[in-house]
Amino acid sequence: MGSRSFYEGWDSNRPNIILFINIGKGTDAKKFVLQSIGRGVRIEPLPNKRRRAVYLYNNQEIDNDIFNKIKDYIEPLESLFVFGTKADNLKEVIETLKQQKPEVLLGDLFEINPAVKDKDLLIPVYRDSDKIIVEEKDIVKYPIHPDDYEMVKNYFNYIGEKVALSKYDCDVRVLNKIKLGFNGHKNDYFIETKEQLKINNPEFLLQNIFRHFSNKTKEFQTFKKLDEEIIHFKRINITADKLNSLREKIEKVKNAKDKEKVESLIDKEFDEGKISREEYKQKIKEIESNIVKEAESTYSPNEKLKIKYIANHYYLPVALTESEQLDFIQHIIKHKSEVEFVNELETYLQQENNFFQQFDWWFFSKIDETLDEVYIPYYNPKTNRIDKFKPDFIFWIKKSDEYTILFVDPKGTEHTDAYRKIDGYKRIFENEYKENKDFSYNDYKIKVKLFLKTNDTATIPENYKQYWFYKFDYFES
User: Fold this and answer.
1) 283 assigned to some structural domain
2) In the chain, how many domains are there?
3) Domain that holds residue 92
4) Is 117 a domain residue?
5) Does pLDDT of 254 surpass 80?
6) β-strand 103-105 against 142-144: which pairing, if any?
């Protein structure tokens, strides 16, 4: 950190965090932003090698064994974290950086799958509950470390109800229930877990507890047809210098939706004797050369971008990369678990009599947690509020009048965060017997389900195991 501008000559390997205090606007400020960020992004992972490890590896300047040992850990070390005291100033910082490396929106190259236009793709809609958490039938319990529980319980009983009411200006309904929670009914209001961070501050804890139980939860209201809730494909952007090499591939893959229609017409012409076998072969060959279901753009050995035609995806085509550090394109599928899930799904769909073949129709879509508004509400103890759990994918599955909305989160992990998200799902979409609630919309009988993916179900608590799967055969059960 410095109290003066980082002008030429200031050097470091390197600041990992930059905090802009009331800085960002104005001509001079923009110059300073570029200079300071330039110092922040400058790194030296190896002596006299001032490039990121992936770049050095691609240029054979780093040993293969060393790179393989560090590649899964270097991203946070090689990232510059920029903070600011004013949101507007940070927006100016971002705009200043974009001017140096212009980005182009690719939204016009992606389109909603024509096959879904006459289909009802439904999503749940929620409303604020009329009750605060402490009045709910299924109370969202407050997670707390056992040592903290004893500390805050003793503190509450020491200061008494009147002081607590005056000091924290809390809701009397909450005060009465908390009193029970601290005196004989702990398990009705608290979840003790040593995984929870120990706070060791009774005043802060009690304030958070009051705030938690004063929150209003979300409850299910109805279903609605998907409209503008999934929009991330319209915001896919890429740096201008990479655009031309990608545009042609996207157009070629996008045309794959017409392949079956064209092939059918050619087959008909051949069957009716309108074209010879040689003409038939030639036309099929032309289709294969001009229309492809997958294309790849390679920018370096570790920077590969794939464009796929997946017939059942909500929008076409699908862009993904196995290089999580690919930063020149945004809002595509890039997390390792998401890419693996899509690849496994494609492989599974090639099997005869796979699970999906029994339905009248089905589609799925990626959900972008930053731009899309398809979610499951859940209590997040880290923020002490009702947050939005946005699983990575949503499936719509229909057979006759039976309709299933299936949320799938392949990067779901077996820890407290995942369990809280599952709890949020269960509270809304399951009954007291842990069975899926039956909903209705128009003529549909609807169920909403949730699956998270793991490689090892053995470590998951018994009461959560039904929500995890490790291969697609699980769907069949």
Assistant:
1) no
2) 3
3) 17-102
4) no
5) no
6) unpaired
CA atoms of 45 and 78, how far apart (whole Å): 9
Distance CA 139, CA 217 (A): 10
Task: From 158, 162, 131, 151, select the one nearest 209 (Cα to Cα).
Answer: 151
Helix (H, G, I), strand (E, B) or coil at 395: strand
CA 386 to each of CA 195, 204, 389: distance values in angstroms, whole numbers, following the listed order: 20, 19, 10
Whether 477 and 432 map to the same domain: the answer is: yes
For helices 202-214 and 172-181, what crossing angle results, to 10°?
120
- The model's pLDDT over 353-364, given as tens digits with 9 standing for 90+, comes to 889 999 999 999
Q: Is 169 helix (H, G, I), strand (E, B) or coil?
A: coil
Do 33 and 131 fall within a single domain? no
For residue 249, the SS3 value is: helix
| Chain-centre distance for alpha carbon 84 | 25
CB–CB of 175/225 below 8 Å?
no
How far apart are alpha carbons 243 and 106 in whole angstroms? 9
Q: What are the tens digits of pLDDT across the range 155-182?
A: 999 999 999 999 999 999 999 999 999 9
| Chosen domain end from 63, 86, 102 | 102
**In this structure, are 468 and 412 located in the same domain?**
yes
